Amino acid sequence: MNKLVLIRHGQSEWNLENRFTGWQDVDLSEKGKAEAVQAGKLLAQAGFTFDIAYTSMLKRAIKTLHLVLESMDLLWIPEVKAWQLNERYYGALQGLNKADTIEKYSPEQVLTWRRSFTVQPPAVTAEDIRSPLKDIRYAAIDPSLLPLTESLETMMERVIPYYQNEISPALKSGKHILIAAHGNTLRGLVKYLDHLSEEDIVSYEIPTGIPLVYEMDDSFVPLQKYFLHSDTIGNTVL
Ligand SMILES: O=C(O)[C@@H](CO)OP(=O)(O)O
């Protein structure tokens, strides 16, 4: 049985403050750190091990990965940081409070910005302080690839090719893989792996800091998936 483990970062400071985050590089909250440590303990207890890990260029995912690996005594494994695994770029909404934004526009408008497959939130300008073009960590990347806003659909245009070209070959070579990323990055990956429709993915949510385990057949077709909670251990089917 081939397994692939995905984990959304633990609760971030802006999850806690209910703010649109996207590519803003906010830290984990204390609860988020504890979630990551607990996830690592559960993975170790359930007998998981990893040969390589993939994460984004944002510290909430990187720190989650490190806390998980530290809990598993696997800090030594190779890790790859890829901007393609960054959270969906939330454009000009980044930094705003979600409840205030509902008040200012409407619940329907905010829901559309948050969960529509195709609608992009308002873009930032290239000069905006939040623009990836202003961020040194993306300086080596072709600027035409860097987003100023993204829908789930356009985000998947970077996430899925990265999965197909980098992660899937490693999986097929027999490596045990952990991906520590973000709510929407992982929603996009789940949509791809499970062939979900645009309608189905709208209501699919991924909690912070809970490992999502894919079991795959010999052709790496997903057979089933489950969240690893303490009560899941010993009972791997949800
Ligand atoms: O703010 C964000 O970047 C994301 C994830 O926290 O929020 P949402 O749930 O609205 O996609």
Explain what the structure shows.
- The chain is of the alpha/beta class and 238 residues long.
- The chain has helices at residues 13-17, 30-45, 59-71, 98-104, 107-115, 152-172, 183-194, 198-202, and strands at 2-8, 52-55, 79-81, 177-181, 212-216, 222-227.
- The protein has 8 helices and 6 strands.
- The model is unreliable at 234-238 (pLDDT under 50).
- It is 37% helix and 13% strand.
- Helix 2 crosses helix 3 and helix 6 crosses helix 7 (183-194).
- The protein has a single domain, classed as Rossmann fold (3-Layer(aba) Sandwich), CATH 3.40.50.1240.
- The longest helix has 21 residues, at 152-172.
- A 6-stranded mixed β-sheet has the order 3-2-4-1-5-6.
- Residues 15, 20-22, 87, 90, 114, 183-184 line the site of 2-phosphoglyceric acid.
- The site of 2-phosphoglyceric acid has 9 residues, from helix 7.
Q: SS-based structural class?
A: alpha/beta
Percent of residues in β-strands: 5-15%
> What is the topology, as strand order, of the major beta sheet?
3-2-4-1-5-6
Radius of gyration: 17 Å
Poorly predicted runs: 234-238
CATH topology name, in short, is Rossmann fold
Active site: 9 (tele-phosphohistidine intermediate), 87 (proton donor/acceptor)
EC number: 5.4.2.11
Protein name: 2,3-bisphosphoglycerate-dependent phosphoglycerate mutase
Function: Catalyzes the interconversion of 2-phosphoglycerate and 3-phosphoglycerate.
